[in-house]
Specification:
Layout: E1 3-12, E2 24-33, H1 42-45, H2 47-54, E3 57-62, E4 65-70, H3 78-84, H4 109-128, E5 136-137, E6 143-144, H5 147-157
Antiparallel strand pairs: 1-2, 3-4, 5-6
Helix pairs in contact: 4-5
Length: 160
């Protein structure tokens, strides 16, 4: 028996300082199970046409606040949807691997940004100083760079 579930994932769209409104993208993931052809999931055969005709409201909730918003129907292209997805489009159910027994290590973005900022500051000072020596060619024929550039090279090596 064909079964369908739709997962909507809200993702931030860009960064802005003190925004009056937040922009988001909504990633739609259909979970189609129990059949091998798209024709057995009639809602998906002409999905964008249905959205164009009927519309859709999404409710966003944060704490005690809820905001319901209508999707933008003008950007939908039912002609492209019909060109890509035919009645005989193959559908394969997918069971996701269970990784609940694995540890996930996460670090604050602020720490990463601070590290990158500090590296840029150090590099700008080192490269902004006058060269103490001009590049020289070593015995092996390779060019040796100034101590300033060597410092930046060592600084960035730690970010690998």
């Amino acid at each position: 028996m064909a079964n369908q579930t739709v997962l909507f994932t809200v993702l931030p769209r860009g960064l802005s300082v003190n925004p009056t409104r937040f922009s988001v993208s909504v990633y739609v993931s259909p979970r189609l199970q129990g059949a091998s052809k798209l024709e057995q999931f009639p809602d998906w055969l002409d999905w964008t046409q249905q959205l164009t005709e009927r519309g859709m409201k999404l409710a966003f909730r944060c704490g005690a606040q809820t905001q319901s918003l209508e999707i933008d129907r003008m950007v939908l292209r039912p002609d492209l949807w019909r060109a890509m997805f035919k009645r005989d489009t193959f559908v394969r159910s997918h069971a996701f691997n269970d990784y609940s027994d694995r540890a996930i290590f996460s670090y604050p973005v602020r720490l990463a940004l601070s590290t990158i900022k500090a590296a840029y500051q150090e590099a700008s000072v080192a490269l902004g100083l006058p060269q103490r020596e001009s590049p020289q060619t070593g015995e092996d024929g390779k060019q040796r760079y100034s101590p300033n550039r060597e410092f930046v090279k060592r600084l960035l090596a730690g970010l690998r």
